[in-house]
């Protein structure tokens, strides 16, 4: 498989965040295979690597919005840990922050570190006024990450007709001055 040049977006102490590419297909496929990883997402696993590749080939957020979900790479090992980033929903004029990591990288601060960097990028570089985070009410770990990066509880909502969800929100103070 040929190497695809990807655009680096952010760097933290331990991480590089870059655009997703078709070379991420195997990692993307394996990430969603773990039922613990997708338990609170409402998503299902990809059928195979080809389905993950098609998803990545058709991922248009970068072109449509200038940003999206980004691959999270550990600098020391160059390993794909998962993804984190912002997603704009044109239907409701809202930008949300999301993240998903391989289970072996949970509880190591990677979600918080990458989400904090994405939040700062959204406010400082993209001039977002408000960023929200959605989670199933039972997903305590993700809710803790949202709280650690400064989001505050806004309201409950119907996640998917079977599960309750919560919305957390943060405002860009500079955008309102």
Automatic annotation (TrEMBL):
Residue ranges occupied by any N-acetyltransferase domain in the UniProt entry: 15-173
Coiled-coil regions, chain positions: none
Top-level taxonomic group: Bacteria
A Pfam family hit: Acetyltransf_3
Protein name per its UniProtKB record: GNAT family N-acetyltransferase
């Amino acid at each position: 498989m040929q190497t695809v040049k990807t655009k680096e977006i952010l760097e933290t102490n331990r991480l590089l965040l870059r655009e997703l590419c078709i070379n991420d297909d195997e990692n993307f496929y394996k990430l969603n295979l773990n039922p613990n990883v997708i338990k609170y997402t409402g998503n299902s696993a990809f059928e195979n690597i080809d389905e993950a590749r098609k998803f990545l080939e058709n991922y248009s957020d970068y072109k449509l919005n200038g940003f999206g979900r980004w691959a999270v790479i550990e600098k020391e090992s160059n390993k794909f840990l998962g993804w984190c980033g912002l997603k704009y929903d044109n239907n409701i004029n809202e930008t949300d922050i999301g993240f998903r990591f391989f289970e072996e990288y949970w509880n190591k601060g990677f979600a918080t570190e990458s989400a904090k960097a994405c939040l700062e990028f959204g406010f400082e570089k993209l001039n977002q006024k408000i960023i929200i985070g959605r989670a199933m009410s039972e997903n305590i770990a993700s809710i803790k990450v949202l709280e650690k990066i400064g989001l505050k509880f806004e309201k409950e909502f119907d996640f998917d007709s079977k599960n309750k969800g919560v919305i957390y929100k943060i405002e860009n103070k500079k955008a309102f001055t």
